[in-house]
Amino acid sequence: MIEEQYLVYQCYGVTQGEKEEDIIYRAAGKTYLDFRRRISFQGKVSVELRQDITEKVKNLLVKELPTLFQTGTQEAFDEKHHEICQCILRIYDSTGGQAYGIAQRWVNQTLLHLVLIEDNLHTGYWNMKECRKYFHIPVEQYVLEAAASERKNKFKHGLNLMAAPLKHDKGENYQMGWYSPGEIQPPEFWDYPEYMEFQKAVRTRLKDMRPHTYRDCLSWTVYAYMEVVQRRNV
Fold first, then answer.
1. Across the chain, what does the average pLDDT equal?
2. How confident is the model over 78-102, as pLDDT tens digits?
3. Peptide bond between residue 211 and the one before it cis (omega within 30 degrees of 0)
4. What is the pLDDT confidence band of residue 234, given thresholds at 50, 70 and 90?
5. Helix, strand or coil for residue 39?
6. Rounded CA gap, 225 and 219, in Å?
7. What distance in Å separates the CA atoms of residue 88 and residue 58, rounded to the nearest whole number?
8. Which of 9, 30, 79, 98 is least enclosed by beta carbons within 10 angstroms?
């Protein structure tokens, strides 16, 4: 038990007995550190303004993420998730805006961190056992590669889905294809339609698997991500 607490503190700066809002705030901060280089701005934006925007997003997540744990269906979760992402995008409007891919990463990666924290500290703040089945996949390059690689046996946890949006300009109609570096739309530039098409494609494939290999979409995400990372490090 003490080793688990040590690990969580080293990763998130969270200790046993901390308040719910403090844990979410630190989890959101870890999310930002994980993907901040993917956030690009139109024109020059001061360090102070970037910091202000980041604080606003983290505080928004502290306020709004607990409502996701109160949804009882996939439809209700998806709707509330979309509302939170839209709020994040409005925060970025003052600097020229961001694509949906940035907002989803803030929400989904923070939820994943909360799962890991809860698994180790058992705070009881969230009913993860019941709620995590509704969670979305944090879309980033490694996960996308595992989901949408054309070669069936490339990855043990690959899904062989033609579900990677090909490169296109903002506002243009998109087309789903196979994962290919340089030819796909980077996840940070995804808009809502391709994002949800990808989420639903993965959900459907995992549900259709016999026997069921993964607990839920989040479980598949972790397996897939780690497999691609390990492949890259060989």
1. 93
2. 999 999 999 999 999 988 899 999 9
3. yes
4. low
5. coil
6. 10
7. 9
8. 79
Q: Which long-range contacts (CB under 8 A, 24 or more apart) does 144-152 make?
A: 144/179, 144/184, 144/187, 144/198, 145/179, 145/228, 146/224, 146/225, 146/227, 146/228, 147/179, 147/198, 147/201, 147/202, 147/224, 148/177, 148/178, 148/179, 148/184, 149/178, 149/179, 150/178, 150/179
Other CB atoms within a 10 A radius of the CB of residue 112 amount to 23
Number of Cβ within a 10 Å radius of residue 182:
5
CA torsion 39→190→34→71, rounded to 10°? 120
Residue 143 phi, psi (nearest 5): -65, -40
Q: How many CA atoms lie within 13 A of 10 on its CB side?
A: 6
d(CA 199, CA 233): 27
Ordered alpha helix ranges (H), 13-150:
20-35, 47-68, 74-92, 100-121, 128-131, 141-148
3-state helix vs strand vs coil in the chain, percent to 5: 65, 5, 35
**Whole-prediction pTM:** 0.94
Nearest to 147 by CA among 166, 164, 167: 164
Is residue 79 within 8 A of residue 94, CB to CB? The reply is no
Condensed to tens digits (0 to 9), the pLDDT of residues 110-151 reads 999 999 999 999 999 998 989 999 999 999 999 999 999 999
Residue reference for tokens 């994040």:
88
- Could you give the maximum distance between any two Cα atoms of the chain, in Å? 52
